[in-house]
Specification:
Distance between the termini: 95 Å
Strand content: under 5%
Shape: elongated
Largest sheet: 2 strands, antiparallel
Radius of gyration: 27 Å
């Protein structure tokens, strides 16, 4: 048997070419978006998922994670980043020339890694937060995802913590060197 509309083959009363059913209806595919929750939760999800604007994590490093609404994780990563910088670069100064090259090389590699991995980290953290919201608001979680606000003040707080951390290390170094 062949379809009257498109002349395609009809199997079990349904055209395999156009989807027309024998009684006149048409089977339509539901367009299921597997990122629907992430898009509701984070309005910038498309640019994050496609790694657009990679210059932002390159410039800001771990502060970018706080900017994306993950204050605690961003703050911890700022501390880890600064401690790595301190122990890898500043503690191993052999002479002026090699230390300047080492500082620039470390900063470039560090920022390149942040530009590469910070967006997937943010998406992973968003998925965790969405799962928590789904568990808390079982009935109307989509509304809660839609009205959730990422607070950009987190990035300012992280910068303040970063500056305080640097000032503490400068003070400690000055005390160790006898310059108060």
């Amino acid at each position: 048997m062949y379809c009257e509309k498109c002349k395609g083959k009809v199997v079990d009363g349904v055209c395999i070419k156009c989807g027309k059913i024998k009684d006149g209806d048409k089977i339509e595919e539901k367009n299921i978006d597997k990122f629907e929750d992430l898009k509701l939760f984070n309005k910038d999800f498309d640019s994050i998922n496609r790694n657009k604007k990679q210059y932002l994590p390159f410039i800001f490093g771990p502060i970018y994670i706080s900017y994306r609404g993950h204050f605690f994780t961003g703050t911890i990563l700022v501390l880890v980043d600064y401690l790595l910088f301190y122990f890898i670069v500043l503690n191993n100064i052999l002479n002026i020339f090699s230390s300047v090259i080492m500082i620039y090389l470390y900063i470039f590699i560090d920022r390149l890694l942040w530009a590469t991995f910070s967006n997937p980290i943010c998406i992973l953290l968003d998925k965790i937060k969405i799962k928590q919201i789904k568990n808390k608001y079982k009935e109307n979680y989509k509304y809660e995802l839609k009205v959730y606000k990422h607070r950009k003040i987190y990035s300012v707080l992280t910068v303040l913590i970063y500056i305080i951390l640097i000032l503490i290390f400068i003070k400690i170094k000055r005390i160790q060197n006898g310059v108060i």
